[in-house]
Amino acid sequence: xxxxxxxxxxxxxxxxxxxxxxxxxxxxxxxxxxxxxxxxxxxxxxxxxxxxxxxxxxxxxxxxxxxxxxxxxxxxxxxxxxxxxxxxxxxxxxxxxxxxxxxxxxxxxxxxxxxxxxxxxxxxxxxxxxxxxxxxxxxxxxxxxxxxxxxxxxxxxxxxxxxxxxxxxxxxxxxxxxxxxxxxxxxxxxxxxxxxxxxxxxxxxxxxxxxxxxxxxxxxxxxxxxxxxxxxxxxxxxxxxxxxxxxxxxxxx
Amino acid sequence: xxxxxxxxxxxxxxxxxxxxxxxxxxxxxxxxxxxxxxxxxxxxxxxxxxxxxxxxxxxxxxxxxxxxxxxxxxxxxxxxxxxxxxxxxxxxxxxxxxxxxxxxxxxxxxxxxxxxxxxxxxxxxxxxxxxxxxxxxxxxxxxxxxxxxxxxxxxxxxxxxxxxxxxxxxxxxxxxxxxxxxxxxxxxxxxxxxxxxxxxxxx
Lengths: 253, 203
Fold this sequence. Notes:
The structure holds two protein chains of two kinds.
Chain A: E1 5-13, E2 16-17, H1 32-42, E3 47-51, H2 56-72, E4 77-80, H3 86-95, E5 99-102, H4 104-108, H5 111-120, E6 125-134, E7 137-142, E8 147-152, H6 153-163, E9 167-172, H7 184-193, E10 198-201, H8 207-215, E11 221-224, H9 226-229, H10 235-244
Parallel strand pairs in A: 1-3, 1-11, 3-4, 4-5, 5-6, 6-9, 9-10, 10-11
Antiparallel strand pairs in A: 1-2, 6-7, 7-8
Helix pairs in contact in A: 1-2, 6-7, 8-10
Chain B: E1 3-7, H1 15-23, E2 27-31, E3 41-44, H2 50-59, H3 62-68, E4 73-76, H4 78-81, E5 86-87, E6 92-93, E7 100-104, E8 112-120, E9 132-139, E10 141-145, E11 151-157, E12 160-168, E13 171-174, H5 182-202
Parallel strand pairs in B: 1-2, 1-3, 3-4, 4-13, 5-7
Antiparallel strand pairs in B: 5-6, 7-10, 8-9, 8-11, 11-12, 12-13
């Protein structure tokens, strides 16, 4: 049976992890490679890097980070941030990423999804959708949630799938950083209008939130940052909670 | 040291496979053209889409090299699919080292992404019978061999049970990514490299 995935996410800027970590005995707690290695050893099913560098130098540093990660971490690596073309995507994949997250660039030029899927196969094209609730629907945002592009997020998800997306990374802007749990209605709405895997993001505060995203939100994977970096929860604790709810996970039999 | 050619067909992540082979003590080289005769073993990795991958192999003359290579050959993911006669992805004619076709999985959601059980049914280099291990998958298509006798392990996704390991003679295909499957994957690559080392000593 396919296991549900638990994915720690690291925000990386100019080659350094920018959010605090809970690991006190790392030699360098800002080193994404060391953190990724640590999470892999703890039972993470996949690692996600989001590059928030704003400069060309930062971007090339990211490629170095990906290369260094591939040399020591032998679980899947998903990388997002700054990918605007097929060539950008090729560079990230050839540095050692397995999947690439595309966000604003795909909204600005939807054909990019098609081009990337044709070149590399849809299985490595992850489309990130940042959604904000407005009444009974959700509107699509770009540029880290700052820009409202006045599109229906659910309709965009379905369109991204038709264009060649292989997976969707769904972030609730309302819940992001609140620790109030994922937006389960948003996840269900996306599930009901698409047939590709969904990664839930935004709002994780405790293990039960991740379990709810999978059991009630019908997500295929859960992504979280701060609960792994800052607070007391380990990946094993999250997986134990999932297992107790009857969800099949790797590492717990 | 065991010299392993890692075929570069132009797309996707090859670094992980190269690093994983280094980790298990082999000497990998990325190869995008020329002869494979100098190598003890070949890995046809699993990234990209079937159509572009096959076109690149044909253009570089590597299809003929792969068909005539006599040492241990491991196809991974799309690399496994390329070992069959044809694929319905991009309607592509493939290498034909195994009889059968590659077709879309019949399950949802697709792609099949994540860690799934690989249940070994008959003895091969990749495990003893009736063993079950988790490996990382990311694919929408799977091989449908004409003869189930080449299948040494199966995986079930939804209601679709598909061949996750096929083997015949010196050629093996795995639908999952050993280079992305943690310790289980590195163990598998260790055994693959060991068969290449043995084959070289016999020769």
